[in-house]
Structure prediction request, 306 residues.
Amino acid sequence: MKELIIIGAGPAGLTAAIYGIRAGLDVLLIERYSPGGQVINTYEVENYPGFVEPVQGWELMSAMEGQVRRLGVEIINGDVKSIIKNTEENLFNVELTDNHIHKAKAIILACGATHNQLKIPGETELTGKGVSYCATCDGAFFKDKVTAVNGGGDTALEEALFLTKFASKVYLIHRREEFRGAKILQDRVLSNDKIEPIYNSVVKSINGSENVTSLTLKNVKTSEEKELKLDGLFIFIGYSPNTGFLPEEILNERSEVIVNKEMQTSVPGLFAAGDMREDSKRQIVMAAADGATAALEAYNYVNEMK
Prediction:
């Protein structure tokens, strides 16, 4: 039995682990894949405090993971199937998909979010064959080729800029008349000769047999459709919280975990931090702050149990 189990090893989970173990709690960190979360797929991070020059996402998260391991936090791989509170014992049972059960006095949920899909013809069939959700992972495969990015937020703009290091041309497709990303990113995108914005348009289908060969685009104002020939599409249209294993009563209509300012859910001893919680701004520094807050409140909760 552990005093604190943290589920998810992105910025929120790793920070929670640091604060939890330094507070003297017996901590277990459960991660489905490998520590780092979505940030390891980010080419450069230039808004995390303490770095004069931009730092690569994998480097930042590797440093966080190393700090957690140096402090002695136990990290295991596992996919959580359910969390049930045993009211008689006042303990949580965390069941993994391999049916192994871990018990804890307090839980911090830090499972993050997953890339949204367009859910259009050709997307599933051509994923890994020209369709990608990670320019950092797959950009090098498109050297001197024509690509497109679908989206208009910070991530889409950042990934379009990254792709210009490899691709000969990058179309930036957005359903609105202007991008939503930070002005500094918009300025960089619009001043880059390799990037061509396509506004007021949506992707209706991704075409090709063995690999992506073109997109069918529809103008949302005129309803006109056209074919855009290219070699790859990178999709960045937001995220969905990884909350499928949680009870609906702690979720809002967007399936985000409802918390107060202490990151406490309606279930005593159950906390949530980072991208999966309600009103998250999905920024690394804010996820880290959430994790620290949740860990300190979990420490208070465990101490009160004693």
Observations:
- The chain has seven helices and 17 strands.
- The radius of gyration is 21 Å.
- Residues 38 and 72 are 24 Å apart (CA to CA).
- The first strand starts at residue 2 and ends at 7.
